[in-house]
């Protein structure tokens, strides 16, 4: 399954920006490639930039990495919930509350990258276990329709988006 197979009716229009960033790779390959690229990318950021904020109130690169981790966990939970309980509805989450309470800047980058890798491995294991029928299931998250397969590509695109933001505004 590739991102080009996802129909616009399978996700809230806001997420199109993320899905469009994913190449035409199958989902599992996109998740694997994203893991490698994100790990290399964060390792390449100079230590002097890991706590940098380009403007007051903006996240640091370390906080963005933990945001990616937290968001992947939330989206995988949504995918699990919909795959096991189709047409259900779950609440949204406030990324700013998560960010304000993450303590990323007090953590070592190696530790954050280890957590990232662990979460991505769990994501890969989960998505590999799903059938085509499971991937087509969906529900509502924060009152918006979302399919399981769209969630996988949103995770990939969200990661690409934030790497781009760091490259543009932090480095």
Automatic annotation (TrEMBL):
SUPFAM superfamilies xref list: DinB/YfiT-like putative metalloenzymes
Annotated DinB-like domain residues: 35-166
Domain of life: Bacteria
Entry-linked InterPro entries: DinB-like, DinB/YfiT-like
Residues of the signal peptide: none
Protein name (database record): DinB family protein
Organism from which the protein derives: Ulvibacter antarcticus
Source species taxonomy: Bacteria, Pseudomonadati, Bacteroidota, Flavobacteriia, Flavobacteriales
């Amino acid at each position: 399954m590739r991102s080009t197979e996802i129909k616009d009716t399978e996700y809230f229009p806001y997420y199109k920006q993320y899905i469009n960033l994913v190449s035409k790779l199958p989902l599992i390959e996109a998740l694997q490639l994203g893991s490698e690229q994100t790990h290399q990318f964060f390792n390449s950021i100079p230590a002097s930039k890991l706590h940098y904020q380009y403007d007051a109130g903006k996240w640091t690169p370390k906080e963005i990495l933990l945001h990616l981790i937290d968001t992947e966990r939330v989206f995988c939970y949504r995918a699990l919930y919909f795959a096991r309980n189709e047409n259900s509805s779950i609440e949204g989450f406030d990324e700013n509350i998560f960010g304000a309470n993450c303590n990323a800047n007090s953590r070592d980058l190696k530790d954050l990258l280890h957590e990232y890798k662990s979460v991505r491995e769990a994501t890969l294991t989960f998505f590999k276990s799903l059938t085509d029928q499971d991937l087509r299931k969906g529900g509502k998250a924060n009152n918006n329709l979302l399919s399981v397969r769209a969630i996988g590509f949103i995770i990939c695109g969200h990661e690409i988006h934030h790497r781009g933001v760091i490259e543009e505004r932090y480095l």
